[in-house]
Amino acid sequence: MSENEILAAIETVLIEKMAHGHMEGFGPDARLNEDLYLDSVLILEIFLNLELEYGLSVPEEAIAKQEIVTVGDLVSLYLPRTTGTVVPAFPLTGGTTDEGVHGEAYYDIKVHCFVSCVSDGLKRNGLDQRPFYFGVWDAKFAVSDRFELLYHAPDITQEFFRGWFERLYGVSFVEWYDPERTKLDNLAVLTGLLKQRSETGSVMVMLDMFHLPERENKFNQNPFPHYLMLQETADPETWFVHDPDYRWEGEIAKEKVIHAILQPTVGGGYVFDNAEARAPHAEDLKAYFEACFVRDRNPLVDAVREIVAAHLDERDGLMLSNLGAAVRELPVITIRKYAYEHGFAFYWRALKLPAAEFEGWCAEIEALVQALKTLHYAVMKLAQTGDRSLAGPVLERLDEADRLETKLKARLAEVFDLWCDLVLPAEVPH
């Protein structure tokens, strides 16, 4: 197909197959997210429909790794091209790019909204936030009674991270939101905290990102519970929004932020002072790693395997066609696997291990993320076609993701033990 034919096919898929409601300005220069409101899952749906309806396909590696910004970038995936350099998923911060893991430059990984918010102040105080990401790669998620994967659910709280943040960094962390109070009463508390906020203070709130369309980051997931931080501005009608996880900040009309906060699907908030932060003690870091580390299994892979099996068996009235919707939130949880890089970097620097080996493990982490992305695509294809012969490739991708993550955990456990031997005093036998 020609370039114009591919462009027309994409437009047809969006209108006729996906009933997409944000087609104003569609064209080669339209930005997929900012202009057309297309998130990563909807882009996968475009790939899938182009393959099934037009026989257009690209290598799995391109689906998983390609940086796609505009419609023109999407079209170019289907045109003959030379292999390009993969752009890092996260920007380097501090130092220079040639220092490696033992210098000050590192990828600024933001993969969990709560952890990103509380870690933001650590860097400002010159503290290493990387150990706090130990708990992120296997952070809690849920599977509903209808076998749906959920990154947020009523029984998932932030108490684990809150307690460990206080213990590790010595910061008093107060939950101001009270679920027993009305939404308006909680809003009044929030307004008071913003007026009292000190220069080093942070006021966190959970809101529904789906209801903030003013942002450049667009979110098609509805609802989209998310923590970020607020400040007052000189204008009483606007609030300053600081979102470390999505690297976005700016002023938004106060009434619009309040609308997102008052949604019935969200509720939560904390206040703390970054000035209290101190470096963690080695004994506490050891305890935290052991509390986080799931050595003998990979919860996300196990959960997706069970969800796929339940839909293939049509358990409790489930239909195979529902499987795509059941794993829609997989990308939100998949990105947490990048937290492994912070774990490896922390121990690599402490033990002064070879930088080249660290880069190799970063490649393994990337391979795990891409394996989960291609797994997601394979599951969507199985669900949309209803072709049960495609279950085999899904199971193969599950096995591959399981193998890759098990390998990462085995090496991380080894370097953790080496670190303990180095920094913790040996126990004297009684």
Walk me through this protein's architecture:
It is a single chain. With 430 residues, the chain is of the alpha+beta class. It has three domains: 3-76, Orthogonal Bundle (Non-ribosomal Peptide Synthetase Peptidyl Carrier Protein, Chain A), CATH 1.10.1200.10; 94-111 and 120-150 and 280-423, no CATH class; 172-276. It has 15 helices and ten strands. The protein has helices at 3-17, 40-54, 60-65, 71-76, 113-124, 159-169, 183-196, 254-261, 282-292, 299-312, 323-326, 330-334, 339-351, 355-385, 391-423; strands at residues 92-93, 106-107, 142-143, 149-150, 173-175, 201-208, 225-232, 238-243, 248-253, 269-273. It has a six-stranded antiparallel sheet, with helices on both faces. The protein has a two-stranded antiparallel ribbon with strand order 1-2. The relative contact order is 0.12. Mean pLDDT is 88; it is low at 82-98.
SS element count, helices: 15
Radius of gyration: 23 Å
* General shape: globular
Strand content: 5-15%
Number of domains: 3
Helix share bin? 40-55%
Structural class determined from secondary elements: alpha+beta
Summarize model confidence as the mean pLDDT. Answer: 88
Low-confidence stretches: 82-98
* Strand order, sheet with most strands: 5-10-6-7-8-9
Order of helices and strands: HHHHEEHEEHEHEEEEHEHHHHHHH
The main β sheet shows up as: 6 strands, antiparallel
| Number of strand elements | 10
What is the CA–CA distance across the termini? 77 Å
